[in-house]
Specification:
Layout: H1 3-17, H2 31-41, H3 46-59, H4 63-67, H5 71-78, H6 84-102, H7 110-113, H8 121-130, H9 140-148, H10 157-167, H11 170-186, H12 190-201
Helix pairs in contact: 1-11, 2-3, 2-8, 5-6, 8-11, 9-11
């Protein structure tokens, strides 16, 4: 089989084995809520992020309200997640930028997204893929599994992204991040995860 066919067959197996837990980027009412939840989820558990985001959006459902929020109030709400002080600044500033530049509407453009406070390449790509736009968000799960299965040998996330885009057809790009993340989250034991990946690696 060609490298692409092998990767697609391996991906299909991962998709069958993955869990069905909700990720922080999923299930929100508005694009604003999707984006803010992704920013908050960086290096934090999805379950905690979802709970915190629900509380936040009850009081601040849009960029207009969050832009006017007092930092101390936001800090209290999002304290359970990691780096809550920095994230407080980022989500308030991001909301202000959205109001000033885009009248509260989130741009579906990578270069515009990464200009927003708290939005890096991974956050922008995860957001775009949630909109059905062909993009691959590279987080620790995507990085680890892609290297383990020899889909890439790159260390930098942007290079991993490029390699995955060459290997997989466009139709699979938006599925890669959520599928690999759910697989990574289901098998939290490194030993169990690697045993499964070793079996998947044998698929040719």
């Amino acid at each position: 089989m060609t490298p692409r066919k092998t990767a697609l067959t391996q991906f299909k197996k991962i998709n069958k084995l993955k869990g069905n837990m909700r990720l922080a980027a999923e299930g929100w009412r508005t694009n604003f809520q999707v984006l803010i939840s992704i920013i908050l989820s960086a290096r934090s558990l999805d379950e905690t992020t979802i709970k915190v985001s629900n509380q936040l959006f009850k009081k601040y459902p849009n960029s207009k309200s969050l832009a006017k929020a007092k930092p101390e109030t936001i800090r209290k709400i999002i304290k359970p997640i990691n780096f809550y002080k920095n994230k407080t600044k980022n989500i308030i500033n991001c909301s202000k930028q959205l109001e000033e530049k885009y009248k509260g509407k989130i741009p579906n453009d990578f270069n515009k997204l990464i200009q927003l406070s708290g939005v890096g390449a991974k956050t922008a790509n995860v957001f775009l893929s949630e909109q059905g736009i062909h993009a691959i968000g590279v987080d620790t799960h995507v990085h680890y599994i892609s290297n383990y299965l020899n889909w890439t040998n790159a260390k930098k996330p942007e290079k991993v992204e490029q390699d995955l885009k060459k290997l997989f057809p466009k139709s699979h790009w938006i599925k890669l991040n959520p599928t690999l993340v759910k697989f990574g989250k289901k098998y939290t034991s490194r030993k169990e995860k690697n045993q499964l990946l070793d079996e998947i690696k044998k698929i040719k």
